């Protein structure tokens, strides 16, 4: 089979190599899956760089999120068990963690429904307890993680403010449903959000960026507001001033979605059922901006790493599977 492999750490475009390799052999409790589509995530780039919290042995195949087919023909969503990731014709996954792919989504959309939307659902509902009528601010609102939070926020009845970088991403954020869009390249984010909220700020702030975005969040969080820390795509991990959180009376909430897979896997299944229902009625639909063949995976991962993409990029192996 064909698979992308990383033999040394570095930038994705430089270290990912497409090769002919043997099909992986599933271990105890695992299954072999035929990959139909693999969604590209920022952690795929971190894996290539050797900067992810999980460091599989070299060589490994990246690709942490797939829509695939089981040997008995079921269409499923899975997180492959590294080192046999999803940028390949076949991958391996834990049998107990397979989720049914929603019939309402094509393969690329289904592959993108898992990590980003699960993270958004847990962040907004489990951690921040977002309520209808509240204001949600989403950083990087047109990106893969942010776009999921925007749709979930709208589905929950919130007013959504999206912060983006550039006119193209601003247009995408409006299409996603943002009530207010702020282009950080052309506007003062703090001033624009304060104007949009009458000076009150946002009840919930969803931050997958860190760095300067977090500094803005601390200035914009409302009384009894909640800042959900999802990741640090900017590369800068902020050091919050806890006296500021005390004085302004807000909460800083960390979210590591992967822990739920071991600490409370029943909640992951419950979340997937809610996401499937939302997808079936059209309330959420992953923004897949580009579908690339397997041969284009390395370049696509690099572009996601460079932050120049909008929505989700997916590697599609089954070209006749669109719904």
Offer a quick outline of the entry:
This protein is an alpha/beta fold. The protein contains 12 helices and 15 strands.
Structure notes:
There is one protein chain. This protein has 323 residues and is an alpha/beta fold. Helix content is 33%, strand content 24%. The chain has 12 helices and 15 strands. It has helices spanning 12-15, 42-49, 107-111, 115-127, 144-155, 167-176, 189-196, 212-220, 242-248, 260-263, 265-280, 297-305, and strands spanning 2-6, 16-20, 30-39, 66-69, 75-78, 90-94, 99-100, 135-139, 159-164, 180-183, 202-207, 221-229, 251-254, 288-292, 312-316. The longest helix has 16 residues, at 265-280. It is globular and about 60 Å long. 50% of the residues are buried. The model has no long low-confidence stretch (mean pLDDT 95).
* Estimated share of beta-strand residues: 15-25%
Q: What helical percentage do the residues reach?
A: 25-40%
What is the subunit organization of this protein? Answer: single chain
Work out the helix count. Answer: 12
Give, in order, the helices and strands: EHEEHEEEEHHEHEHEHEHEHEHHEHE
User: How many β-strand runs?
Assistant: 15
Mean pLDDT: 95
Major beta sheet summary: 7 strands, mixed
* Contiguous uncertain segments of 5+ residues: none
Structural class: alpha/beta
Distance between the termini: 26 Å
